[in-house]
Automatic annotation (TrEMBL):
Highest taxon of source: Bacteria
Domain (Transcriptional repressor PaaX-like N-terminal): residue spans on this chain: 22-91
PANTHER family: PHENYLACETIC ACID REGULATOR-RELATED TRANSCRIPTIONAL REPRESSOR (PTHR30319), TRANSCRIPTIONAL REPRESSOR PAAX (PTHR30319:SF1)
Domain annotation Transcriptional repressor PaaX-like central Cas2-like: ranges: 109-179
Domain Transcriptional repressor PaaX-like C-terminal, chain residue ranges per copy: 196-283
Native source species: Achromobacter aegrifaciens
Pfam families from the UniProt entry: PaaX, PaaX_C, PaaX_M
Record-given protein name: Phenylacetic acid degradation operon negative regulatory protein PaaX
InterPro entries: PaaX-like_central, PaaX-like_N, PaaX_C, PaaX_trns_reg, WH-like_DNA-bd_sf
Length: 309
């Protein structure tokens, strides 16, 4: 970290102490944000060294890595006494899917169409229905009536993917719809506060802005690469935990003063403030003696609206 007396060091120490990251979740954040754009391979020893300053000890990290291998997020290769870990194809699919929510966000415009998933009254057991509901809610769908889930912009393919994953591709209806509230009916959008917990989500965004907003001034003095890396990992880890539970409703369905907009702007500004220095630290550790470590993917420059000139 920085000089123990520096304001940045005190800020980071307090941030980690007040919200200590969990090893496995932090690994996933690091894999998607920093390692996947470089090919997704890292020596276990270098991963341990990268995350030690964030309070992750070696034992916890090894356990988390083994679990990620068991869940097919990672694959391992033995090279003598060393272990190289690589993001699996499944892990790459997961990170690519999450990237839209993390770096792009919900659409500002909306054509009024909905994707609906309807569960017939017969043909699905209680366990199947409960598991499908969990998956749909995680994807951002809201339940507008018993057995009927809706999302205003998620593509039908996402619903079909969930049904395939659960092994029940023919047990639910996936529909595209447009409500006819103009004829006097109830607009689906008016149910937003009932279908999605927007109040709790709004408070999480406000807390994010409160926690990380002060960093912008602290970073006016360019941080050392190691400190920039810590900022980047903690920033994205905290952001990811909120935004992956955000249903990503389109702009017209959200209040004008929706705090998610301001939080995303803060996150993007800080991300790019520390990006280049954090990459230097990542290159120095993850890139050493690692032939699988690739140059940074060009499309990363489009994150959070684009890298400032």
């Amino acid at each position: 970290m920085a000089n123990p007396q520096s304001p940045l060091d005190r800020f980071l120490s307090r941030l980690i102490k007040n919200d200590p990251p969990r090893a496995k979740s932090l690994c996933v954040s690091l894999l998607g944000d920093a390692l996947a754009p470089h090919g997704g391979a890292i020596w276990l020893g270098d991963l341990i060294e990268l995350l030690a300053p964030l309070g992750i000890n070696e034992r916890l990290l090894r356990t988390s890595v083994f679990r990620l291998v068991a869940q097919n997020w990672l694959q391992s290769e033995r090279h003598g006494r060393r272990s190289l870990y690589l993001i699996s194809e499944q892990g790459l699919r997961h990170t690519a899917h999450a990237s839209q929510r993390i770096y792009v966000g919900p659409p500002l415009e909306w054509n009024g169409e909905w994707t609906l998933v309807a569960l017939p009254r017969t043909g699905n057991g209680l366990a199947e229905r409960a598991e499908l509901r969990r998956e749909l809610v995680w994807e951002g769908f809201g339940m507008i009536a018993p057995g009927l889930f809706a999302h205003p912009h998620t593509e039908a393919s996402a619903a079909h993917d969930i049904l395939e994953k659960l092994g029940i591709p023919d047990r639910a209806l996936v529909l595209s719809a447009r409500d006819l509230a103009g004829a006097g009916g109830l607009p689906i959008a008016s149910l937003a506060s009932q279908c999605w917990n927007l109040d709790e989500l709004a408070e999480q965004y406000r807390q994010f802005a409160k926690n990380f907003g002060p960093l912008e001034k602290l970073l006016e003095t360019p941080p050392a690469p190691a400190d920039a890396f810590i900022v980047r990992v903690m920033l994205l880890h905290s952001w990811r935990r909120i935004v992956l539970h955000d249903p990503q409703l389109p702009g017209p369905m959200l209040p004008d003063d929706w705090p998610g907009h301001a939080a995303r702007e803060i996150c993007g500004r800080i991300y790019w403030q520390v990006f280049d220095a954090s990459e230097a630290h990542l290159d120095a550790l993850a890139g050493r003696d690692n032939e699988r470590y690739a140059p940074l993917a060009a499309d990363i420059a489009s994150r959070f609206g684009g890298k400032p000139a």
